[in-house]
Amino acid sequence: MPGLTAPSDYSQEPRRHPSLSVNAKTPFNAEPPRSALVSSYVTSSDFFYKRNHGPIPIVEDINRYSLFVSGLLERPKQIMMKDIWMLPKYNVTATLQCAGNRRTAMSKTKTVRGVGWDVSAIGNAIWGGAKLSDVLELVGIPKLTSVTQFGGRHVEFVSVDKCKEENGGPYKASIPLSQATNPEADVLLAYEMNGEPLNRDHGYPLRVVVPGVIGARSVKWLEEINIIAEECQGFFMQKDYKMFPPSVNWDNIDWSTRRPQMDFPVQCVICSLEDVSTIKPGKVKISGYAASGGGRGIERVDVSIDGGKTWMEASRFQKSGVPYISEHASSDKWAWVFFEVTADILQSTEIIAKAVDSAANVQPEKVEDIWNLRGILNTSWHRVKVQASHSNL
């Protein structure tokens, strides 16, 4: 594509923040310290997790960059970056979470395959760009269309990013056309993150942001959009990111029996404490993030300081000083919610947090019940152990 190339090696990688925990160097996959996540409602691009499948693409000339839209529509169209800039710009605050977030904890039950993420493969940003529904109108697909006159029911996003899972082909994923053409779904072709142009790690010059859905569908470094009849047949839609029961292993797996994962389930994580923390006996602040997919709000976060025998309700907020109300116009519907509670902890114990979303979905208690061979969607109760010590050491 004019203006955008995928390097064949890792010699021209961008610089990254030194505090990131690197889970893989080539391709680069890294996450921030958990404490950095709760330091700000909006996650800076430095501390936003990096999920890559190959070398980071390079834009040679933004003025030559274009997007090709084709498939089951009246006529294909090449859309230049300036055409996208001319469309109405929307800012959408949305949390993206890798489906493999908290995979390392799931792996402790039984080994799984995949990048070993701790609890920080998640971030919340203000994405700026054009609504996909407006872009699709440029090629003759009206808003709120679920099928084109030529039988198109899905919108496939193709990256310039090349990956070994696609045998050197491009990364790709799709969403239903009904979602893509619905302005209320807030699917963006984003060119900004937190008021700045996207950086290379996060998809410069143009990426898809699909709010409420696992991060794997928010394709970076967008090269093509295809209107197709069936779901994308790419590796990451058909042979990855599917939820299997604990009974399925690599010998009996049948990928075709499961649909590609889209919405993520309700999730919460304690970020103010590490997995094993030493504390001074007394008042301890327990805080973290909670999020659910599909635009569902967070109705409640429960915290236990006695291993789950008794529970207290944490306060919830998005912006400081503004009370958070689930499913309310004052709340960012696609964004995470912070929770906080202060408790008297006088002895060593296990602290647990669990969230409930607006549909009354609650996190499962045990990771064993949701273990799956790819280690995705670990939304079990989050637990941290604290050792009470009077020592100043």
TrEMBL record:
Q: Which InterPro entries match?
A: Ig_E-set (IPR014756), MoCF_OxRdtse_dimer (IPR005066), Mopterin_OxRdtase_euk (IPR008335), OxRdtase_Mopterin-bd_dom (IPR000572), OxRdtase_Mopterin-bd_sf (IPR036374)
The annotated pathway is:
Sulfur metabolism; Energy metabolism; sulfur metabolism
Which terms in the GO cellular component ontology are assigned?
mitochondrion
Q: Where is the Oxidoreductase molybdopterin-binding domain?
A: 53-235
Enzyme Commission (EC) number = 1.8.3.1
**What are the BP-aspect GO terms?**
sulfur compound metabolic process
Q: Where is this region: Disordered?
A: 1-28
Moybdenum cofactor oxidoreductase dimerisation domain residues = 260-388
**Swiss-Prot/TrEMBL keywords:** Metal-binding, Molybdenum, Oxidoreductase
What does UniProt give as the signal peptide span?
A: none
So which cofactors does this thing need? Mo-molybdopterin
Q: What is this protein called?
A: Sulfite oxidase
Task: Give the originating organism.
Answer: Phaseolus coccineus (Scarlet runner bean)
